[in-house]
Design goal:
Blueprint (H helix, E strand, L loop, with lengths): L5 E5 L3 E9 L8 E3 L3 E9 L1 E8 L6 E6 L4 E4 L5 E6 L3 E4 L3 E7 L3 E10 L6
Length: 121
């Protein structure tokens, strides 16, 4: 019932973004990775599939790292696809490239971002 926007939990250290979007096809998705935050992606409704590949195995950068948005995109294809049904979550660390929002239905999800700091490494 919360608004589809960013919600601060602990300022920029921990926050949650809520979104609803139509699922897309595998070939429309790009692998992405983050350096500053851990992603905890919780599917509220719909069924999502996410591509995965270790960042260390990604060889073709699509967009260089953007520190303001904490994101890098890759042209590489995922090594595997993971089904994440409603009521389930998946966690991605900086070493995990992922291609989210794959599905045939509308996907309602919460993405909790947890900042990596020296105290929680």
């Amino acid at each position: 019932q919360l608004e589809l926007t960013k919600h601060a939990i602990n300022g920029d250290k921990v926050f949650c973004s809520l979104a609803k979007s139509p699922g897309r096809k595998r070939e429309q998705a790009s692998l992405e990775a983050h350096r500053r935050y851990i992603d905890i992606q919780y599917v509220i409704s719909g069924k999502e599939e996410m591509g995965y590949k270790p960042v260390a195995e990604c060889r073709h950068e699509k967009e260089a790292y953007n520190p303001e948005k904490d994101i890098t995109f890759f042209k590489d294809s995922p090594d595997r696809w993971i089904e994440v049904p409603a009521g389930s979550f998946i966690i991605f660390f900086p070493q995990d490239a992922h291609a989210p929002s794959i599905g045939n239905t509308e996907i309602h999800k919460a993405v909790v971002k947890v900042e990596l700091t020296a105290s929680n490494l």
